[in-house]
Design brief:
There is one protein chain. The chain is α/β, with parallel strands linked by helices and 398 residues long. The chain has 3 domains: 1-105 and 291-398, Isopropylmalate Dehydrogenase (3-Layer(aba) Sandwich), CATH 3.40.718; 119-140 and 180-283, Isopropylmalate Dehydrogenase (3-Layer(aba) Sandwich), CATH 3.40.718; 142-179, no CATH class. It is built from 14 helices and 16 strands. It has a 10-stranded mixed beta sheet with strand order 2-1-3-14-13-4-5-12-10-11, sandwiched between helices. Strands 6-9 form a two-stranded antiparallel ribbon. A hairpin with a 5-residue loop joins strand 13 and strand 14 (300-304). Helix 1 packs parallel to helix 14 (387-397) and helix 11 (327-343) runs antiparallel to helix 12. The protein is globular. The structure holds NADP nicotinamide-adenine-dinucleotide phosphate and magnesium ion. Magnesium ion is lined by residues 273, 277. Magnesium ion (MG) is lined by residues 273, 277.
Length: 398
């Protein structure tokens, strides 16, 4: 059989621990036998990030800007324990944070639905995609403990030195205070990423904030979304038969739990942090969540939402059999291959991505799955497979 040709290479970002092992198996058993795989390879494994003083992460993000589509393996974000474990020169920053800042992107997280793994919310029939704004608000705040009586003000000093003041509170006793900010440009990028992704995936966009209470801050988000939508997207949405609407966050929460799914829920940074954990747990498993970073210029980086599954990796190192779920990592590859195929007009590549996803889901639906799913499935008598056996079961169906 002739292998499927590619035109433009994918940016391939290798990673750490159990997911690095899964990465190699997926390429070797599921992709390379069928696709003449072209990638620009960047080893973002922690040892190599340390050896290159993290230059490799920046190079991989630059390559993504140039080539347009990347696929990323989960990576360790070092903490004190990792610095010791790997003998690091310093506590390197999160690669995802670095890449996100360079691509100015929005992260879209969506669950993979499969028969036998039922959402806790029984009316959810289609995936709910959370689009989380990844800049500012409480994540870049300034806070103070107020020790006792006194006045707290917000002071804006313009470039010409003029001051504008807004009273926060006249304290008569001790308390706390917090200052936050966001940027029009970042909010606009967020809006564009959401609208582009909606057109790409033919789904409605819901956007929610608390503008009735936050009449300037949250209201600014609402206004920018509305301006961008009317100026550049309203017509395309109409043609695509999809809808954009704004609603209050509490109304959105109430509607989401009664909805069927099949839409994008755009959330401010904090709301997105909290709601994505709620939505992913309610859909069944962290190991079944996909994640894609989309820049406002239309650059895509696909990955699994979970981490490097450290606990399983240590079992693996100790020579024990593991049962680690590779579905989200397989879907990161299929997402990237499909997008590359669409951009380069390679129908065979798009259709290969579809088939690999179908083979993966039908393996689970036939009762063959990893331990995390076997524990929660509604299918009777599931077979629990090891990490490698599951990938081989997908390969035989493919
Ligand atoms: P994790 O890798 O997501 O795993 C947490 C737990 O969730 C696992 O111990 C396992 O539970 C379960 N799990 C997650 N993915 C699974 C899978 N594919 N198959 C089966 N079970 C799965 O999070 P972590 O252990 O807290 O973090 C490990 C490392 O990942 C950290 O160094 C962190 O910095 C990094 N991380 C990276 C990313 C990223 O690159 N995007 C994201 C998050 C975390 P059981 O142990 O109960 O089986
Ligand atoms: Mg969180």
């Amino acid at each position: 059989m002739a292998k499927i040709e590619m035109k433009t290479p994918l940016v391939e970002m290798d990673g750490d621990e159990m997911t690095r092992i899964i990465w190699r198996l997926i390429k070797e058993r599921l992709i390379c036998p069928y696709v003449d795989l072209k990638t620009e390879y960047f080893d973002l494994g922690l040892a190599n990030r340390d050896a290159t003083d993290d230059a490799i992460t920046i190079e991989s993000a630059e390559a993504t800007k140039r080539l347009g589509v990347a696929v990323k393996c989960a990576t360790i974000t070092p903490n004190a324990a990792r610095v010791e474990e790997y003998g690091l020169k310093q506590m390197w920053k999160s690669p995802n944070g670095t890449i996100r800042a360079m691509l100015d992107g929005t992260v879209f997280r969506a669950p993979i639905l499969v028969k036998g793994i039922e959402p806790v919310v029984s009316c959810w029939k289609e995936p709910i995609t959370i689009a989380r704004h990844a800049y500012g608000d409480v994540y870049k705040n300034a806070e103070m403990i107020v020790p006792g009586a006194g006045k707290v003000e917000l002071v804006y000093t313009a470039a010409d030195g003029t001051e504008t003041r807004e009273l926060v509170h006249e304290f008569t006793n001790a308390g706390v205070v917090q200052g936050m900010h966001n940027l029009d440009a970042s909010i606009e990028s967020f809006a564009r990423s959401c609208f582009n992704y909606a057109l790409d995936t033919k789904q409605d966009v819901w956007f929610s904030t608390k503008d009735t209470i936050s009449k300037k801050y949250d209201h600014r988000f609402k206004d920018i979304f509305a301006e961008v939508f009317v100026a550049d997207y309203a017509k395309a949405f109409e043609e695509a038969g999809i809808e954009y609407f704004y609603t209050l966050i509490d109304d959105a929460v109430a509607r989401v739990v009664k909805a069927r799914g099949g839409f994008i829920w755009a959330c401010k940074n904090y709301d997105g942090d909290v709601m994505s954990d709620m939505v992913s747990s309610a859909f069944g498993s962290l190991a079944m969540m996909t994640s894609v970073l989309v820049s406002p210029t239309g650059v895509y980086e696909y990955e699994a939402a979970h981490g490097t599954v450290q606990r399983h990796y240590y079992k693996h190192l100790a020579g024990e059999l593991t049962s680690t779920n590779s579905v989200a990592t397989i879907f990161a590859w299929t997402g990237a291959l499909r997008k590359r195929g669409e951009l380069d007009e390679l129908l065979d590549l798009v259709s290969f991505a579809d088939r690999l996803e179908k083979a993966t889901l039908s393996t689970i639906e036939a009762g063959e799955m990893t331990g995390d799913l076997a524990r929660i499935t509604t299918l009777e008598n599931p077979r629990t497979l090891s990490t490698e056996e599951f990938i081989d079961a997908v390969a035989s169906r493919l």
